[in-house]
Amino acid sequence: MSEMEIDEAKENDFMKVLTPREIVSELDKYIIGQDRAKRSVAIALRNRWRRQQVPKELRDEIAPKNIIMIGPTGVGKTEIARRLARLANSPFLKIEATKFTEVGYVGRDVESMIRDLTELATNMAKKAQQEKVKLKAQELAEERLLDILLPKRKKEETREVEEGEKEKVLEVVKGDRGESNSTREKLRRLLRSGKLDGRYVELETADRNVPMLEIFSSAGIEEMEFNIKEVFGNIFPTKKKKRRVRIPEAREILFQEESQKLIDMDKVIEEAIGMTEQNGIIFLDELDKVAGSDSRYGPDVSREGVQRDLLPIVEGSTVTTKYGMVKTDHILFIAAGAFNASKPSDLLPELQGRFPIRVELDPLSQKDFVRILKEPQNALITQYKALLETEGVDLHFEESAIEEIAYIASQVNERMENIGARRLHTVMEKLLDVISFDAPDMGNKKVVIDRDYVRERLRDIFEDENLSRYIL
Q: Of 233, 262, 291, which residue sits at a domain end?
C-alpha cells in the first residue's frame, strides 16, 4: 500500500504545484467568463491533493465535494470539466444521464460508467508503462526486424539451439559469424537512416478472432462480452497469419508486441484501479433530464429509477469490473444540466445531498462572443487561420468583422434556441464556406475579412428568420 501511495503522490505532482488561483488561471486560457464555476472546480481539485496529505485514518472519511453546474447549453460546462481533468492528468469520462435506464430494463446500467472509467485509467497506466520500456522495446523490435531482413542459415540456427540447450546465457554471443555480423550492422545502419522504408517484409501476427455470439442480458453485458472473449481465447489455439507490410509499419507492430511483453500488467491494473478510485472524474451531463417524474402509472425506468441507481454509485459503493473491484467513494462527480423544465430540488433528496456545491453559469453576451473568438489559446479564429494556412491562404480578420460575427451570433441566439457559443461555429462555417471551398485554387493569397464581407455573406440568412432557423 505504501508503494501505491508513492505512485499516487507522483501522479499528483502537478496538482501540488497548482493552487486554486493557478488552476483558474489555466482554465482562463481556454474558457471565457464563468468565474464562479472555475473557482468551485479549482477548490474541488485542490481538495483532492489536500485529502492525500491528512492522516490515513481521516483520509477515508473525507468525501469528495461533488458539483452541479446549472446553465444553458454552450456556456462552457463540459469544457470546464474536460480541461480540469487534463490539468489533473486524471481519468475523465463524459456521459449523458439519459443513456441509462433502471437495472432490469433495456439500456445501459449506471455501473457501466465506472467500468468505462476504469478502462480509460488502464489505458493511461499502460501508456505510461509503455513509455518507460520504450527504448528497450525499440531495441528488441529492431533486432527482430533485422532477423526478418537477414534470416539465419539453417546450420547456424541448429548450432545456436544446441548451444542454447547447454547454456542459454551465452546463446547470443556464441558462434563465429563475422561475415553475418558485418552484413547485419550494415542493414542496421540502413534501417536507422530510413533507406529501407520503402521495402516490404512478411510478418507473422496473432489472429485473435473469436466466434461470434449473441448475448441477451439486462445488466453487465460489457463485462460478459470481455469474459467470453477471454474464455474463447484460451480454448481456441492462437492462429498465426502472415501480413506483408512496409518496414515502418512492421517496426511499429513489433514494437507494440515487445512492449506488451515487457509491461507488467498486474502493476498496470493496480495503478489503474488506484487512479480510478483516487483521481477519477465523471462528468454527468443532462442530469436535469432525469430529475422529477412524468410517469403517473407504472415504473419510471428512465428518471427516478436512474436516480435510485445513481445514488449508491455517487454515495460510494464497490463495482465489479474486468480488472477487479473498484470503490467509487472518492470519484469526483461533476453533474450538469440546463434545468429549464426542472430544478435541482426535483432530484431525490438523498442524491441532492451528494452534490453539495451548486454553481450557476452565466449566459454568454455579445462581448463574451468577441472574447471567445479572439482570446482563448484554441480560439475559433486561430483554428480557421491555421486550417487555411495549410492551403497557403493567409486569413486576416479585422476587429469590425469579429464584432459583427459576435453580434449576428448573439441575435440569432435571442430569436431562436439559445445554444450559446456553439452558435459561433455555425456562423463561422457559413461565413467561410466560399473561401474554404476555393482555398486550394487560390494559391498564396491574403484574404481580409471585414464587416462588409460578413454582412454580404450573412445578411440574407440573418434577415430571413425562416432561413436562419435552418442554416444558422
A: 262
